[in-house]
Each structure stands twice: as structure tokens, then as C-alpha cells.
Amino acid sequence: MFDVAPSELMLLAVVALVVIGPKDLPKAMRFVGHWVAKARGVMGQFRAGFDTMVREAELKEMEERWAAENARIMSAYPPTPAALPALEDGAAALDDDAAPVLTAPPVLTSAPLLRDAPPALTDDEIAAAEGVPVMLPVQPGTPAGSPA
């Protein structure tokens, strides 16, 4: 949007140093930074609000398209009156608290079930399997480099 070259920034810094002076320049830069931060915050809020409005408009458009497509499908394939009572009976059957009825025999598999879990491995067995050398405990009173 704004194209500012490094040479233009250097010229602006020199002019600010000459006009404002080295004593008041930090205060002026702090003041400018404060207002720039406020402007960025306002722009961020504006952008977030605009994005929300766009998202809501897209959602509304998608809902309208879905409603139109649903109406087209329902008009092309209307429910038959004979199917409606069957649907209602099925829904009533789902509402009953009766016990379930077995309609087919259970499927049996030939794979044996795991009844016993394998024994747990110790830390030393896991370390050996991973190739980690076993750490031997150091006896109190022995120097660090000597064998136990």
C-alpha cells in the first residue's frame, strides 16, 4: 500500500532529529508508536468484524442453496403414502422398551481368545531388547571409576 524506501526513512529520521531535537526525540517516537499501535488495533478489529460479516453471508447463502436443493429433491421424489405408516410403525418400535429380539444366530470365529496376558517385562529386559547397556548400582564408598 505505502511504498517507503530505506533512503526515505533515513531522510525522515534526519529531519525529525533536526526539527524535534535529540532531547525530545524519544518522547516523540514513543508518542508515535502509541498511536500506531492504536491504529493497528482498530484495523484488526475492523478486519475481524468484516471477516465475520463475510462468513455469515457465505453461511446464509449456503443455507439458501441447501434449502433450494432439498426442496427440489423432495418435489422430485415425494414420499409415498404407503411408506408413511411403515415408517411410523418402525419409529414406534424403536420407542418401546421391550427386550431386543435375536434375528440371526451369533457369528462364531475359529480364532482362540486371548485369556492369559503375556508376563510383563522388567526394566532390564526392556533395556537389553533396546540395546541399552545395563547400569550397575554403585556401592557407597567406592570411587566412581573403579569396578564394583
Characterize the structure shown.
There is one protein chain. This protein has 148 residues and is mostly helical. The chain has helices at 6-20, 25-76, 83-95, 123-130. The mean pLDDT is 79.
- How far apart, in Å, are the first and last alpha carbons? 75 Å
Radius of gyration: 39 Å
User: Largest sheet, if any?
Assistant: none
> Mean pLDDT score, rounded?
79
The assigned structural class equals mainly alpha
Number of helices, counting only DSSP H or I runs of 4 residues or more = 4
Strand content: under 5%
Compressed to H and E, one letter per element, the order equals: HHHH
Helix share, percent: 55-70%
Task: State the shape.
Answer: flat
Low-confidence stretches: none
Assembly state (oligomeric)? single chain
For the secondary structure, the number of strands is 0
Supply database-style keywords.
148 residues; mainly alpha; 4 helices
Compact overview of the structure:
By secondary structure, this protein is mainly α.
